């Protein structure tokens, strides 16, 4: 089995290796977490705002059953210029209440990247092609670098 790497923010160049199972417990950190000072946080915020001004991006979350052809649905959204990119996440277990019962299903999460101006058209198309009676459709406003935002806008038209 491989290893998963991640870096803990604000700890000086400290990385931890976790088993590829995706589950791990870190009992404690060897260093104390030091939050950004107010001045540093404001500087970071100004940099982000300058980089993302005018981005107008939206991230859409939806799920499909584990056996559904998520790649085909993703390709349809991209080919029809409703999405610039769709990430199909690996399988997961969803537990939810539906029609009075607690259900458990294996599903795939899709992360759809588009512009705020294409959200309504994407929602309408997803209702047409999604196999669920009530598909998940969660819209998150997003900010990105100016270059990435421009690519998304150009890609979806």
Secondary-structure blueprint of this entry?
Blueprint lengths: L2 E5 L7 E5 L18 H15 L4 E9 L4 H10 L5 E14 L2 E15 L3 H11 L8 E5 L3 H11 L1
Antiparallel strand pairs: 1-2, 3-5, 3-6, 4-5
Description:
There is one protein chain. With 157 residues, this protein is an alpha+beta fold. It has two domains: 3-51, no CATH class; 57-156, Alpha-Beta Plaits (2-Layer Sandwich). The chain contains four helices and six strands; from the N terminus they run ββαβαββαβα. The strands form two sheets. Strands 4-5-3-6 form a four-stranded antiparallel beta sheet. β4 (85-98) and β5 (101-115) form a beta hairpin. It is globular and about 50 Å long. The termini are far apart. Mean pLDDT is 78; it is low at 1-34 and 51-55.
């Amino acid at each position: 089995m491989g290893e998963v790497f991640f870096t803990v923010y604000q700890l000086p160049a400290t990385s931890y290796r976790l088993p590829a199972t995706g589950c791990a417990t870190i009992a404690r950190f060897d260093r104390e977490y030091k939050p950004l000072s107010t001045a540093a946080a404001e500087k970071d915020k100004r940099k982000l705002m300058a980089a993302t001004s005018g981005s107008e991006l939206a991230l859409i979350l939806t799920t499909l059953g584990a056996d559904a052809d998520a790649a085909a649905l993703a390709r349809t959204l991209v080919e029809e210029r409703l999405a610039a990119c769709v990430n199909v996440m690996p399988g997961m277990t969803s537990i939810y209440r539906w029609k009075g019962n607690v259900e458990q299903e294996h599903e795939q999460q899709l992360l759809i990247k588009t512009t705020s101006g294409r959200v309504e058209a994407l929602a309408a198309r997803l209702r047409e092609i999604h196999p669920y009676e009530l598909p998940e459709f969660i819209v998150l406003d997003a900010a990105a670098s100016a270059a990435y935002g421009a690519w998304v806008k150009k890609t979806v038209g």
